[in-house]
Amino acid sequence: MSTELVEDESQFYCKAKKYWKAVPATVDGMLGGYGHISSIDLSGSKKFLQRFIRDGSHKIGTSYALDCGAGIGRITKRLLLPVFKSVDMVDITDDFLSKAKSYLGEDAKRIGNFYCCGLQEFTPEPNRYDLIWIQWVIGKETDVSFLLSTSSSKISCLFLLLCFIFI
């Protein structure tokens, strides 16, 4: 791909933020109009995650998780909170994080932090997370920003990227 075809990164993220501002704060909105696949997606994600929380050489802790591109908390509520003691959520859209507080109900008190920023601006705290969950939003990041933000944080945890591909 030639450099002429690559957008300026700031313009790329500006467009992304504008796009997400126009998306409804619903499960259907979070899944780009494919809300009907949520239960199938969650079922596969649970099976995938179970591989890493059982006994074995790849076992991870279950204290703290980070949900990247958390939206209204669909993954946080149905996948992460049933397993982890606490979850931090990061999303670029403040309306989604506001909606998450009501969507999560009583479980909202188990959210450590609601970070409102793009993933390209977010640097996870070193050694805080047992799991960083990045799924649907990974396609909305540039390779450079994603790699810089995760590798520079030097986190000792398991990254589950694009998990729906491996299920």
From TrEMBL:
<dbReference type="GO" id="GO:0071885">
    <property type="term" value="F:N-terminal protein N-methyltransferase activity"/>
</dbReference>
<dbReference type="GO" id="GO:0005634">
    <property type="term" value="C:nucleus"/>
</dbReference>
<keyword id="KW-0949">S-adenosyl-L-methionine</keyword>
<dbReference type="InterPro" id="IPR029063">
    <property type="entry name" value="SAM-dependent_MTases_sf"/>
</dbReference>
<comment type="similarity">
    <text>Belongs to the methyltransferase superfamily. NTM1 family.</text>
</comment>
<dbReference type="GO" id="GO:0005737">
    <property type="term" value="C:cytoplasm"/>
</dbReference>
<keyword id="KW-0539">Nucleus</keyword>
<dbReference type="GO" id="GO:0032259">
    <property type="term" value="P:methylation"/>
</dbReference>
<keyword id="KW-0808">Transferase</keyword>
<keyword id="KW-0489">Methyltransferase</keyword>
<dbReference type="InterPro" id="IPR008576">
    <property type="entry name" value="MeTrfase_NTM1"/>
</dbReference>
<dbReference type="Pfam" id="PF05891">
    <property type="entry name" value="Methyltransf_PK"/>
</dbReference>
<protein>
    <recommendedName>
        <fullName>protein N-terminal methyltransferase</fullName>
        <ecNumber>2.1.1.244</ecNumber>
    </recommendedName>
</protein>
